[in-house]
Amino acid sequence: MPNANSDHNAQTAPDQATLILGERQFQFPVIEGSEQERAIDISYLRAETGHITLDQGYGNTGSCQSAITFIDGDRGILRYRGIPIEQFADYPHFTEVALLLILGRLPSETELEDFSADLTRYAFLDEGMKHQFEGFPRSAPPMAILSAMINSLSCFHTELHELEDEREFLHTAAHIISKIRTIAAFAFRHSRGLPYIYPDPALRYVQNLLHMMLSQPYHQHVCPDIVRKALNLIFILHADHEQNCSTSTVRMVGSSGANLFASVAAGVCALWGPLHGGANVEVLSMLEQIHEGNLTPEEYVKLAKDKNSKVRLMGFGHRVYKNFDPRAQMLAKVAEELVPKLSGDDPLLEIARRLEDIALTDSYFVERQLYPNVDFYSGIILRAIGIPTNMFTVMFAIGRLPGWIAHWWEQNQTAGTRIARPRQIYTGETRTDYLPMEDRA
Ligand code: ACO
């Protein structure tokens, strides 16, 4: 397995791969990306050999070529359209990064202003949608409501199903990026039985979301600058992560020709799972469990190493990062600055630091290259900001939305895109006959 020290890219790249199957040999082209990542193009493998590849979890399978995000998991590198994410720590707003991902380049001042104006214009939901929230039980998981209501948007905006050109696409993207905030906030207000707070056109993206979630009638929530910056950065750091589970889902659904609303709603469902976006909730419940005194950090780590326990150290490990996750490093810094200012000495932050120290020196985690991932510190920050735990994954979805949209459009614009349709190796019964009920044992 390549590790951080192996220099597999320095070898001369062959442009063909040879497969030997019994007596026969087959040649397949090797293709190379702009960062010297290499793939064996097996598009004609089955046609030529009668075989398919089997790769559970797709750990070695490239499903597309993409120009949006580059990750080098061995070196802890993440870049959006070529720009290292560390460069986003001080400068842009989330909306600028969203446009960078969607347009494929940094926007001009006018493009950013127009897009921001669209975000303001489209922030309201059709009043008919408001009534739909009433039909959900108070206890409904916000991720379920989010997915359902994004799908519902496609009922209210049928004119945005077929997109003729980039201009129409950008308007549709602005609709969804703006309205997801309103849906998220209304889902939260509904779960608490609170009156809905309408978007305020005077507020920018992050403040408007917090206003709709946390203001009360006649009492506007004031968002401190430190909170705005932290949430802005959380959204930016979640904005894309190439072919992860939810993004691949969006592409999969989109490959059938499904519209942007339907494809993104499916992405929300994929993100919901505890091994993906739901991990930030699990991290918090792990920290709370330890804080309540049920287990010490040492005991928890021991349990996470025990294969019979089914417990994992949540917020640790990643399919791609076999070194540090650069997003986690940036968020750890934010947590250290922000949490003491907002919540004083937070025992959960102390527990997180302790867990990280233990795991980073434990041979189990070291050998398996398990490092803190983006979810390890994001929950602690969101909690300090005042976001309830059941809204954590919704925050992730708001952040990831521009990435989903960029991938959907890239696929839509790529000539030769085919419907995504993996194959399988069948392991069931061979041909068998139907038995009438009376003949069954
Ligand atoms: N705690 C304990 N052991 C772990 C952990 C963990 N968090 N993560 C992986 N391992 C172990 C596995 O048990 C396995 O051990 P083995 O080789 O002895 O069988 C080995 O490390 C490899 O793990 P896999 O599950 O094969 O790794 P995979 O790439 O399939 O999974 C995943 C990656 C899902 C992120 C995993 O590390 C995990 O479950 N982490 C905890 C959940 C989490 O934090 N998810 C958020 C991911 S980031 C994101 O989606 C934004």
Mean pLDDT: 94
Percent of residues in β-strands: 5-15%
CA distance, first residue to last residue: 51 Å
Bound molecules: acetyl coenzyme *A
Stretches with pLDDT under 50, minimum 5 residues: 1-10
Structural category: mainly alpha
What string, H for helix and E for strand, traces the elements in order? EEEHEEEHHHHHHHHHHHHHHHH
Strand order in the sheet with the most strands? 1-2-3
Q: How much helical structure, as a percent, in the residues?
A: 40-55%
Radius of gyration: 24 Å
Present the secondary structure layout.
Elements lengths: L15 E6 L2 E9 L5 E3 L4 H5 L19 E4 L4 E4 L2 E2 L9 H10 L5 H13 L5 H8 L7 H15 L9 H27 L12 H10 L10 H14 L6 H10 L5 H12 L7 H13 L5 H9 L20 H18 L3 H14 L2 H5 L7 H11 L6 H22 L28
Antiparallel strand pairs: 1-2, 2-3, 4-5, 5-6
Helix pairs in contact: 2-17, 3-6, 5-6, 5-10, 6-7, 6-17, 8-13, 8-16, 8-17, 9-10, 9-17, 10-17, 11-14, 11-16, 13-16
Bound molecules: acetyl coenzyme *A.
Descriptive overview:
- The protein has 441 residues and is mainly alpha-helical.
- It is 49% helix and 6% strand.
- It contains 17 helices and six strands.
- Strands 1-2-3 form a three-stranded antiparallel beta sheet. A three-stranded antiparallel beta sheet has the order 4-5-6.
- A hairpin with a 2-residue loop joins β5 (77-80) and β6 (83-84).
- α8 runs antiparallel to α16 (375-385) and α13 (326-343) packs parallel to α16.
- The longest helix is centred in the middle third of the chain and has 27 residues, at 166-192.
- It is globular, with a radius of gyration of 24 Å.
- The protein starts with 15 loop residues before the first strand and ends in a 28-residue tail after the last helix.
- Acetyl coenzyme *A (ACO) binds next to loops.
- Acetyl coenzyme *A binds at residues 57, 275-276, 279, 304, 312-319, 368, 370, 373-375.
